[in-house]
Amino acid sequence: MPKVFLKTYGCQMNERDSEQVARMLVARGHVMTPHEKEADVVLLNTCSVRDLAEQKALGKMGLLGRLRANKPEMIFGFLGCMAQSRGEELVRDIGHVDLVVGTQKFHKVADYVEELLERKRAVREQLMDDARFSIVDVAEEAGSQETIREHVLKPKQATAFVSIMQGCNMHCTFCIVPSTRGAERSRGIAEIVREVEELVARGVKEVTLLGQIVNLFGRHELEKVGGKSPFVQLLEAVHAVEGLRRLRFTSPHPIGFREDLVNAFAELPKLMPHVHLPMQSGSDRILKAMHRGYTAEKYFALTEKLRAARPDIAMTTDVIVGFPGETDEDFTATRELVERVGFDNAFIFRYSPRRDTPAAEMGEQVSEAVKEERNKEILRLIDASAIAKGEELVGKTVEILCEGRSRTNEDRLMGRSPGNKIVIFDGGERHIGEFFDVRIEHSSGFSLYADPAVL
């Protein structure tokens, strides 16, 4: 059967979408391969959040095109956000691309791959002419949020992502996601719970709920019950699944944190003490220009409420530097808010203009040199904060869930703490997929290192 090479760029939702595509291809008898040179089908699942992500995917596809010299029947395809955004132009501009599938049609990829394979076979057998033939599908589809629900689990896999919604209605002025992912649409709570129950029955012990703005889940489809938002209702329903040990979610928006969600961190033991809370800027003027819907002071007050509800909570964030019109004073406000909050970690982004977004048309675009310097300065602050947070855990015993081999050292294992910190330690196959306590002996700031003697 044909071998498929599938590479994913971008966020955890993209990873989850790729898993669904792989599941459907395998069900049709295709074989997934990590080696592009032995593949019959090459698929790149793309990201459009930053220009760099698009350029990486375009560059990769350009290099992969050379493989067709030895395999004229190879199929090359783009999936996901860049596919949605660029559509037909990808086929027009890159001569060897056969397939372009947008974000609402992942469930059609296996059908399209087989259609293209049949076309190539017919050309080879001279049943039809070899005129250029491609498939582009970036149309919207009602109910597409229900199509990402199947999983490919590895042996002893104890963690899984569950997609609970698609799309975004926030329209932040820097963000292309509303045009690539469409409007907000959510799944039903009962269906999500069934998916989690099935995962637990297959050995999964921790699930992470995924959504573009995950804590706004169900706001168009479901009502509040007992003063609780649909998202908190979902958290409680998933929390009640017997056998589930840990529950996480990503990525939320600060405006979606009401009292019920803050309280959930205190009331739901399985809900892990970690929140990724995108800040983006500490300047009220820039936050307004970004269309974020909160002020720096409101953001800080929210972090204080979360820490009051769960004192051990770890906080991570996103920060954009160099947004159009960002002055030295605006940047100083961002730096000060980063220091006030004291994050465990952060993703720092230099503003990248995205076509068809309001910010791309704004005046006072900041130079790349200034963006780079501001990026380095925030990174220094985050590094110092992460080191301090890590040092607080040295000498303490924490419970980890072992996820498997370390990505940087195959001879060691890695697990994750309740606060979502990576823990590296020596161990064996018996530890993979299991919970146990370790004593933290050392911290690099971003990773913790455990004493193997306690295993």
Distance between the termini: 43 Å
CATH fold name of the largest domain: Rossmann fold
Derived structural class? alpha/beta
Q: Can you give the helix content as a percent range? A: 25-40%
Q: Radius of gyration, Cα only, in angstroms?
A: 23 Å
CATH architecture of the largest domain: 3-Layer(aba) Sandwich
| Strand segment tally | 19
Low-confidence stretches: none
- Would you state the CATH class of the largest domain? Alpha Beta
Molecular shape: globular
Q: Assign the CATH superfamily of the largest domain.
A: Methylthiotransferase, N-terminal domain
Assembly form of the protein:
single chain
Please, how many helices? Answer: 13
In total, the number of domains comes to: 4
| Strand order in the sheet with the most strands | 2-1-3-4-5-6
The overall pLDDT, averaged over residues, is: 94
Strand content: 15-25%
Major sheet description: 6 strands, parallel
